[in-house]
Amino acid sequence: LWRGGRMPKPSKAYLSTGFDALDAALPGGGWPHSGLVEILYPEIGLGELSLLAPSLAALSQQQMVVLVRPPLSPYAPALAQADVTLSRLIWVSPKSNQDCWWVMETALRSTACGMVIAWPGRIPVDQVRRLQVSASEGQTLGVLMRPDGGTAPNVHLRLRIRRNNVQTCQVDIEKARGTHRRSSVVLPC
Fold this sequence. Notes:
The protein has 5 helices and 10 strands. It has helices at 20-25, 53-60, 76-81, 97-109, 125-138; strands at residues 14-15, 31-32, 35-41, 64-68, 89-92, 113-118, 141-147, 157-163, 168-176, 183-188. The longest helix is centred in the last third of the chain and has 14 residues, at 125-138. It is globular and about 35 Å long.
C-alpha cells in the first residue's frame, strides 16, 4: 500500500541553488542533477536568470552550459561578473519550434552539458516527455523558462517567480518531486 505522506528520500546529490533559503525549501537541498525544472515568470527581465546564476557559475567551471532561444541577448559582462565561465557557455537561437526542441534534446542527452536553459514557448506534452527522457539519459539539468500561464507536465520541479519590489522576488515552489509541501521563499533579484 502506497501512502502519499511517505515520499521517498531523494537518492542523488543535488546542486545548490546558491540561495540558502531556496536550498532549504527544495527537496534534496537544491536543483536535481538531471531532469526538467520549469520556471514560470510574468514578464521577461524579472530576474528569472539571476535565480540560476550561482548554479550556472558552478556548472560552467566543469561543463558546457547551453542557452536555447533566450528572448534577449545574453549580456557577457554581467555573466562574467556572476563568475560564469564564458568559454563554456553556448548560445543557440533556432528559428522554428522543432529546431528548438531538437537542440534541447541533443544538448540534454549530451554528457558534455551540465545545464540546458531554454525558452521554448508552447511545447506539446509528448515533447516534454522526450526532453525528460533525454535529461535522464544525459544526466543533465534542463530548465524550461516559460511565461506565466500554461505549465508543462512531467517536470521534477516547478517554480513561479514574482517581483515583490525592486530588490526582491518571491519564488513559489508549486511542484517538487519528493514532497507534497508547497512553500514560498523571498530572494534578492
